[in-house]
Amino acid sequence: MALIKYTKLSLLTTLVLSVVACSSNSSHNSKLNYSDKEKFGAKYKEHQYYPYAPYVPVKKIPSQKKIVNPNDFLYQLGNVQQYSDTLTKDYAHTYNKLANWVRSGAKIQNLSSYGVNIQQMTGEEGFKNVLMTGYYSPVVNARHTKIGQFQHPIYAMPRNKHFTREQIYNGALAGKGLELAYSDSMLDNFLLGVQGSGYIDFGNGNLNYFAYAGQNGFKYVSIGRLLVEDGEIPKEKMSIKAIREWGESHPNKVQGLLERNPSYVFFKNDYSGKVKGSAGVPLIALASVASDRNIVPSGTPLLVETPVVDEDGDWTGEHEMRLMVALDVGGAVKGQHFDIYQGIGKKAGRKAGLMKHYGRVWLLK
């Protein structure tokens, strides 16, 4: 997700929202029945039904669990205060209350004694179950010039940006001085575009941050959905990992698949080196989320009961309590759905690709 409000078509990143809109978005999960959703962390027993309002006021949060990321949350608040005068002004009173509460031990049962007002999200179907997916900042191996296996250009924004992906792959932008780098993987370039920004490893020990610069104006088509419809990957197995494995097994089919998505993303060097959300604030992993700003405005602090999943993407039966701030948006992030920033690199990408679960969310005011 990028500073320029890129409509991240993700994991969704997803069930991978980031890449897999067919299996990563809320419309897919909403088709599951209650017992299926319970396997992904949803809860229905003793949950009152709220069919209309996006959130409801509550006096207390029924949890005795410890906050697992108090320091990261304070760090994220510090970034907001450093990078956004507007958000700092709008939320200064709330941030101060929460900072005092965190420094005093961050016991959930003591929130109200610090003057914090609490509203709980009502969830997809009114039972307070909020869809949670993940996104991340990829690291792409590349070189400054075309050499050896590094043959796949990453482009800056052209004046005439209305070429399709297929046209660009066939040379529409070649030789115009727009090449920022050449990677060793067409699929990695594609996933970089899905995330909207990421890091480039030029092999010199340093990472360069490429930020979102623009898009060619064509509608995004999910390659995850295409692979499911083509019978290449079962819907229940869809993930970024599954897409990569398919690409490794079918290298001659990768370009043809990607060309069926005409949308193409362009980049620019961001020498700050910081991953920023649409609010212009550097993001801290697992302390920031993308939200639907019509429901949860940028800058809103949140207490999030996040599902704990294993290496296979299965819910372990446990949730963690994390403090976060809404600082990003996404084209696939609508309604009762949060996309949680997972961090940088392959490990973060794997976590993002597995996340398609349910938890509970409280707005703190």
How would you explain this protein's 3D organization?
With about 375 residues, the protein is of the alpha+beta class. The protein has one domain: RlpA-like domain (Barwin-like endoglucanases, Beta Barrel). About 25% of the residues lie in helices and about 25% in strands. It has helices at about 20-25, 25-30, 35-40, 70-85, 85-105, 165-170, 185-195, 225-230, 240-250, 255-260, 345-355; strands spanning about 55-60, 120, 130-135, 140-145, 150-155, 180-185, 200, 205-215, 265-270, 290, 300-310, 315-330, 335-345, 355-365. The strands form two sheets. It has a six-stranded mixed β-barrel with strand order 3-13-10-12-11-14. Strands 5-6-4-7-8-9 form a six-stranded mixed sheet, covered by helices on one side. α4 (about 70-85) runs antiparallel to α5. The longest helix has 19 residues, at about 85-105. It is globular and about 65 Å long. It starts with 20 loop residues before the first helix and ends with a strand. Mean pLDDT is about 90; it is low at about 1-30.
